[in-house]
Amino acid sequence: MNFLSQLTGSFAQPAAENPTVTMIESAYRYHDLDWRYINCEVAPSELEDAVRGARAMGWAGFNCSLPHKVAVIEHLDGLGESSSIIGAVNCAVRRDGKLIGENTDGKGFVESLQEKVDPTGKTMVMFGAGGAARAIGVETALAGVRKITVVNRSENRGQELVQLLNEKTPAQAELVIWKESYCVPQETDIVINATSIGLYPDVDAQLDLDVNSLTAPMIVADVIPNPPHTRLIRDAAARDCTVIDGIGMLVNQGVISIQYWTGIDADPKIMRSTIEEVLGI
Ligand code: NDP
Fold first, then answer.
1. Ligand 1 center–CA 3 separation, angstroms
2. Are residues 238 and 119 in the same domain?
């Protein structure tokens, strides 16, 4: 064998377990897939070379997280439908030799939602207007949600998302600038926290929300996977709402990514139990 034709990488990995890596690799093992999912830290200045490296090494694709979700686009060969509307990519997939950018975050949330309700014609209140909110807003709109009220602290980001939803999806969107305790209108079907409020270690952080306006049969969801039982989820469950935690979205976006790369439908139950084990739930 000409060893110049092979490169064997060697790099230091932080000792702490990365929940996403552990989750994806547990699915590979469970489905007898001889695949690997490796976490690499990439500095923004090295992003172009990293993507070129992924191509050169024949990777089937990769996930990317902040701060690369927008910047990676110029290094890819094309975008899927919703990622081109969202304007951000968290999953690249090699198709016919080309690297195509997809966004599986919002699709993962819609799958969790569809386990509880058909989104068609529903009204939704969404807290937040950052990357997760953009992905969820676009995908829920494409899945049939009729009206989306974006509740966001900063006006600029909120306005940008509302404009995007109104111009590029069939949903009708409006902005509420979040200056005081928000009272969820009683006709709302779905409420979602798409902000980072409640993420570990700020586990008791609370949305500025009148919790008594959360009533059954509303569906109340949170994007925060760690801890999954956020204050919002606990408050909503105590008021008999149907709740969806952030682990479902995390697992489902992983299932969709694996489907894109390998063509295999991974078992979400295995992936969820791996995540729960890593998080010590
Ligand atoms: P961004 O930084 O892009 O956006 C953060 C959003 O949260 C903004 O709308 C921001 O408002 C709002 N926000 C943050 N702190 C506060 C506060 N104290 N009061 C009011 N609003 C606040 O982050 P992302 O959208 O990328 O991520 C948001 C969360 O989603 C993260 O915690 C991440 O872990 C989670 N996530 C979960 C996924 C899953 O699979 N479960 C997948 C992707 C993300 P403003 O515009 O005013 O600054």
1. 46
2. yes
